């Protein structure tokens, strides 16, 4: 007599994300899983591969032909930071997603074996759970910020702590324009603002091809909101929409944005735009503990919860570490902040594409 299907051990293989049927199966699984995120979806993996040139290695676990787990991996190569297998590449979440401990275990095991076969000295899992040994657990460096969206403008303003609320109200007194779209003008404005913003923070900017690839892959589930003053973009964010939540992901402001409170206007405009699109949750993503970005999100009334990441490295090898707050990188950050923007924009993508 055959054993019930539930007792069969799951099998793991690498999925073909170019196969529409395969991608549709994965999408259905992620959509139905309570812990799914946009970063588990095939469009995210395809966009990273197209925009940064880093190969997708998407693992799926199956039992008796049914999908029981997924793990989106990105094979990251960097001459500065080495080789790593990351789940999910260039994302804030995206660890193992499974319907049982058995499925999670086989995905974890196969991911480490794959990392070794690909000569990646580090395996990084962002979120989810791990069951095996040898993992370095980090629950201290990053926090996640999300909260429900209020039903109207007044309620949303009341949800913002008083001091920050005053800054938002002040932004309304300036002659600022807000545009939303995904056309050539929106993309150019977003990249100009974002590139200046990260240069000012001392970080290299991602390739523009990455943003174009995300806009292409997610179609109507992504757009760009930009705040303008006298025809000049001051603040801009690219946001994803998935399962009733708005995910502002890549955004920033120029130095002039502070003068005109453009960042305050942008965040309030994004929340209201998300509500207009039918979203009930505003997901501001992660920030490093102790940074100005984390403080800004808290000031907007977003509670912080720790993010738990896992790393495993080959014997005798330290895990890959990319943290601009690390004192070892402080000189590089300071020098990058002084680079002419044109130079930072030319060199930055060559570095950032290997950050993962």
| Distance separating the two termini | 48 Å
Strand content: 25-35%
Number of domains: 2
Average pLDDT figure: 92
Q: Helicity range of the residues?
A: 25-40%
The profile of the biggest β sheet is: 8 strands, mixed
CATH superfamily of the largest domain: Gcn5-related N-acetyltransferase (GNAT)
CATH architectural group of the largest domain: 3-Layer(aba) Sandwich
Q: Return the CATH class of the largest domain.
A: Alpha Beta
| Unreliable stretches covering 5 or more consecutive residues | none
User: What is the CATH third-level topology name of the largest domain?
Assistant: Aminopeptidase
Total helical elements: 12
E-strand count: 15
The gyration radius over C-alpha positions equals: 21 Å
Domain BioF2-like acetyltransferase: 162-298
Pfam families: Acetyltransf_6
InterPro entries: Acyl_CoA_acyltransferase (IPR016181), BioF2-like_GNAT_dom (IPR038740), PEP-CTERM_FemAB-rel (IPR017469), PG_Glycine_Bridge_Synth (IPR050644)
Protein name: FemAB-related protein (PEP-CTERM system-associated)
Helices and strands in order:
Layout: E1 11-14, H1 20-32, H2 42-52, E2 55-63, E3 66-78, E4 82-87, E5 97-98, H3 101-117, E6 122-126, E7 136-138, E8 142-148, H4 153-159, H5 162-171, E9 177-181, H6 184-201, H7 208-218, E10 222-229, E11 232-242, E12 245-253, H8 256-259, H9 262-276, E13 281-288, H10 292-299, E14 304-306, E15 309-313, H11 330-337, H12 341-352
Helix pairs in contact: 2-7, 5-9
Organism: Sphingomonas japonica
Pfam family, one: Acetyltransf_6
Protein name: FemAB-related protein (PEP-CTERM system-associated)
């Amino acid at each position: 007599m055959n054993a019930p299907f539930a007792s069969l051990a799951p099998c793991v293989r690498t999925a073909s994300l170019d196969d529409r049927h395969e991608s549709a199966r994965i999408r259905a699984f992620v959509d139905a899983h309570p812990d799914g995120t946009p970063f588990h979806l095939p469009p995210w993996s395809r966009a990273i591969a197209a925009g940064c040139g880093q190969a997708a290695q998407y693992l799926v676990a199956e039992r008796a032909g049914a999908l029981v787990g997924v793990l989106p991996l990105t094979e990251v190569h960097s001459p500065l930071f080495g080789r790593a297998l990351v789940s999910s590449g260039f994302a804030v979440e995206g660890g193992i997603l499974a319907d049982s401990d058995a499925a999670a275990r086989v995905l974890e095991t196969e991911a480490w074996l794959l990392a070794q076969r690909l000569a990646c000295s580090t395996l990084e899992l962002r979120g989810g759970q791990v069951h095996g040994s040898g993992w370095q657990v980090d629950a201290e460096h990053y926090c996640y910020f999300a909260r429900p969206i209020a039903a109207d403008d007044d309620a949303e303003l009341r949800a913002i702590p008083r001091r920050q609320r005053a800054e938002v109200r002040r932004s309304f007194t300036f002659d600022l324009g807000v545009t939303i779209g995904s056309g050539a003008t929106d993309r150019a404005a977003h990249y100009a603002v974002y590139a200046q913003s990260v240069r000012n923070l001392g970080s290299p900017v991602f390739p523009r091809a990455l943003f174009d690839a995300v806009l292409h892959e997610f179609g109507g589930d992504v757009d760009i909101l930009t705040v303008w003053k006298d025809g000049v973009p001051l603040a801009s964010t690219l946001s994803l929409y998935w399962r009733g939540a708005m995910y502002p992901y890549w955004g920033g402001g120029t130095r002039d944005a502070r003068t005109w409170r453009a960042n305050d206007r942008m965040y309030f405009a994004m929340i209201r735009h998300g509500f207009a699109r039918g979203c009930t949750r505003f997901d501001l993503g992660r920030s490093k503990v102790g940074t100005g970005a984390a403080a800004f999100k808290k000031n907007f009334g977003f509670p912080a919860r720790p993010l738990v990441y896992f790393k495993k490295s080959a014997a005798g090898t330290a895990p890959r570490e990319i943290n601009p707050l690390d004192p070892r990188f402080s000189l590089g950050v300071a020098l990058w902040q002084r680079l002419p923007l044109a130079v930072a924009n030319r060199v930055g993508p060559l570095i950032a594409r290997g950050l993962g």
